[in-house]
Amino acid sequence: MNAFAERILRWYAENGRDLPWRRTRDPYAVWLSEIILQQTRIAQGTAYWHRFMERFPTAPSLAAATEDEVLRLWEGLGYYSRARNLHAAARQIAEMGHFPDTLEGIRALKGVGDYTAAAIGSICFNLPAAVLDGNVYRVLARHFGIATPIGTTAAKKEFTALADKLLPAGQAGAYNQGMMDFGAIQCTPRSPACMDCPLQESCEAFRSGRVELLPVKQTPRPPQVRHFSYVYLRCDGYTAIRRRGAGDIWQGLWEPYALEDETPSLPGLRLLQSGVKHVLTHRILLTDFYFAQMDRRPELPDGYRWIPESELDRYGKSRLFELLLEAVATLS
Ligand code: SF4
User: Fold this and answer.
1) 183 lines ligand 1 (CB under 6 A)
2) How far, rounded to the nearest angstrom, does the alpha carbon of residue 80 sit from its chain's CA centroid?
3) Is 34 a catalytic residue?
4) What domain range is 173 assigned to?
């Protein structure tokens, strides 16, 4: 076994966290913990894990529940798609009659990605699959002095190859959990405990004084700024909307009469608010809100339709459209 894995395993035996799902190899219990912990801290996640294990101790019992029951038990954890996937995956498992025991089989469960499949596969079935998440990237980048920016395809390739090479035969489960805990407890993002680290001697970042500089993060793209005009058209209790198409923000949601990089010119137009700022991932939208009262319904550009204003509630809207409606509601 390589010296790195040996040290991680020794460190884990002495310092590993005692978590309830680590006292079992039941793949259902481990899978449940992995899904809950995807976007939740351990302290909060543990309480939910106990709740679920008590109420639904097996995959078939979870599969037999209604979606409402599952969502109610999940309440407070957020990211509800996880709960829906959990429920769907429990049905997949129940249909199969057993928890899948190959990487491909586990990966085929709804809501399970490469990381979760490697974690469950190695912990429960000792499958030789290395986990790769933020913790593992950080430990490897520092220990081996790798400056390839995380988040790039090149990094994924390089770190996957290294992680696979380091995986000790027959001990993938303990090693993976050791890497997760080592990253979370010892080699932490901001104040790693280098002074009492068992890897210090071989750590390239420590040797070269680059602990603070590694891992290298990909420089984020500057956000794109887009300018819109949103016009609320009103004519005899009707307003005009259209559904946003594929390939842009808010696909499938409805929007009011909208122009990009253009100022509307319509009779009776009133500016309600200008430069309303709305921030999305990688984008900043600056939007002017207008209101136009019309005597008769003009012909609309492609895709728009007139609908009774009283039916607006039935349409899925972006937050920005909601803000326009709030501004319109303040008109006397
Ligand atoms: S010496 Fe510091 S940077 Fe290197 S592995 Fe240990 S904790 Fe991480």
Assistant:
1) no
2) 11
3) yes
4) 130-219
CATH of the domain at 54: 1.10.340.30
**Residues sharing a CB contact under 8 Å with residue 81, sequence separation 6 or more, in sequence order:** 111
Per-residue model confidence as pLDDT tens digits over 236-293: 999 999 998 877 888 778 999 999 999 999 888 999 999 999 998 789 999 999 999 9
Q: Is the CB of 29 under 6 A from ligand 1?
A: no
Q: What's the 137 CA to ligand 1 centre distance in angstroms?
A: 13
0.90 exceeded by pTM: no
Q: Is 192 in the pocket of ligand 1 (CB under 6 A)?
A: yes
- Same-domain pairing of 229 and 166: no
Residue 210 domain-assigned (yes or no)? yes
pLDDT tens digit string along 154-166?
999 999 999 999 9
Counting ligand 1 atoms within 8 A of each CB, the residue from 143, 146, 201, 214 with the most, and so the one to mutate, is 143
**How much distance in Å is there from the Cα of 206 to the middle of ligand 1?**
6
- Catalytic one of 6, 14, 34, 299: 34
* Separation of alpha carbons 87 and 182, rounded Å: 32
CA-nearest of 273, 271, 269, 285 to 318 is 285
Does the CB atom of residue 8 touch ligand 1 within 6 A? no
CA distance 82 to 60: 18
CB 111 within 8 A of CB 88: yes
